[in-house]
Amino acid sequence: MPAPRTVLLTGAAGGLGTLMRGLLPSYGYELRLFDVAPVEGEPDAITADLGDREALRAAVRGTDAVIHLAGISLEASFDRILRANIEGTYNLYEAAREEGVRRIVFASSNHVIGHTPRPVPGDPPLPVGTTRRPDTFYGLSKSFGEDLAQLYWDKHGIETVSVRIGSCFAEPTSVRMLSLWLSPADGARLFHAALTAEDVGHTVVYGSSDNTRLWWDLTTARALGYEPRDDSEGYAAGLIAEQGELDPANPDHAHLGGHFVTDPPIWPR
After folding, report:
1. Which residues, in sequence order, are CB contacts of 122 under 8 Å at separation 6+?
2. What is the pTM assigned to this prediction?
3. Which of 29, 93, 138, 152 is catalytic?
4. What's the total number of domains in the chain?
């Protein structure tokens, strides 16, 4: 698939969106920016809510692909998750269908399988086919997004790569993150691969760097042409000295979703 030239980037004002705004243009992309909040320094960015179907359809119109990062990225009440992450993602797919856009990269999350016990040394890496066990309404919304992507591939021929992103920051900030870290540079490499690989249908991949302590299997990501170059291990000694090793007796360390599993639930209000 030729590299798409114009890509709609939703969630452009967020942390990950800001990182990708700086990195993806070097791959030849012209980014069209969309966010509910103004994008600092980008006067041409579209400021609109995912619930505004007309604004969303206009934003999609004429693009070659979409990277969908927008939505709530932490746990919240079900009503808020419903509007932003579930209905908002549906609106995005409908806009793509109506405007004839045939490739979406969907920001899924490790919290889709958050209740899965984390691997311990000696365990095989977790495959993409691991049973989904969302740890929150947030994780549930990302599980819905993956199913929605499958539906729109089967019914409408819209291809999606669902990227179960670990933690994409300039550097890892916790011992747990040593296993899930996606460096910004590797994030751009992965998104580029997801935009340009041929015949992806609906493909689910894990999004992380080539970490020494990696918990999951990057086979499906590598099959897209993704070649991670970074490893969190260079940060390990400092983080372990500060925080200690992961403790199997600590409930926050027992599952893939970390504290998302153990935090008190946020019920609808």
Report:
1. none
2. 0.96
3. 138
4. 1
Range(s) of the domain holding residue 142: 6-262
265 confidence band (pLDDT: 50, 70, 90): confident
Residue 90, in any domain of the structure = yes
- Predicted pLDDT of residue 268: 60
Predicted pLDDT of residue 4: 79
Q: Is residue 267 part of a domain?
A: no
Instruction: Say whether 29 is catalytic.
Output: no
CATH number at residue 79: 3.40.50.720
Q: Answer whether residue 105 is part of any domain.
A: yes
